[in-house]
């Protein structure tokens, strides 16, 4: 693991904010001033391939990254792009997985669920405007 790759992984592991590559670049540039955005993207691709990070679909906004790689759900704000982990057991007894397998013939290895809505902050900004 190069210094740059270690910095990307450590930065992701130290946050729950699901940063974009640009967010990671800004944070890591303080530690490694010579790092480039291209280096961030290259290292994210390698870390993803190694199974150490996942990409989170934020619903049309910039791709976000997460170091929590076990299956879990997300909720995203369609106004500001905030992505948060959703700590709910949405698949008690693997009912959804079994239903999908029976309907499609696929053998599932994992699934993700992302909900899209308007976060409380954006709701209150809308109410004050």
User: Under CATH, the topology is which?
Assistant: Arc Repressor Mutant, subunit A
Structure summary, number of beta strands? 5
Tell me, briefly, the overall form. Answer: flat
The poorly predicted ranges are none
Order of helices and strands: HHHEEEEHEH
Beta-strand content:
5-15%
Number of helices: 5
Structural class: alpha+beta
Separation of the first and last Cα atoms: 48 Å
What is the averaged pLDDT score? Answer: 87
Index terms:
two-stranded antiparallel ribbon; 129 residues; 40% helix; Arc Repressor Mutant, subunit A; single chain; alpha+beta; three-stranded mixed beta sheet; 5 helices; flat
Could you please describe the fold and organization of this structure?
Helix content is 40%, strand content 15%. It is α+β, with helices and mostly antiparallel strands and 129 residues long. It has a single domain (3-128), classed as Winged helix-like DNA-binding domain superfamily/Winged helix DNA-binding domain (Arc Repressor Mutant, subunit A, Orthogonal Bundle). A 3-stranded mixed beta sheet has the order 4-3-5, with no helix packed on it. Strands 1-2 form a two-stranded antiparallel sheet. β1 (54-56) and β2 (64-66) form a beta hairpin. α1 crosses α3 and α2 packs across α3. The longest helix has 13 residues, at 37-49. The protein is flat and about 50 Å long. The mean pLDDT is 87.
């Amino acid at each position: 693991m190069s210094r740059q790759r270690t910095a990307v992984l450590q930065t992701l592991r130290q946050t729950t904010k699901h940063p974009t590559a640009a967010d990671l670049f800004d944070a890591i540039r303080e530690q490694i001033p010579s790092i480039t955005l291209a280096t961030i993207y290259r290292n994210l691709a390698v870390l993803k391939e190694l199974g150490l990070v996942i990409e989170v679909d934020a619903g049309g906004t910039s791709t976000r990254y997460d170091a929590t790689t076990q299956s879990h759900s997300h909720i995203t704000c369609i106004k500001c792009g905030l992505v948060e982990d959703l700590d709910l057991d949405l698949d008690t007894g693997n009912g959804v997985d079994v239903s999908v397998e029976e309907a499609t013939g696929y053998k599932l290895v994992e699934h993700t669920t992302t909900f899209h809505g308007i976060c409380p902050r954006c709701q209150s900004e809308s109410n004050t405007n």
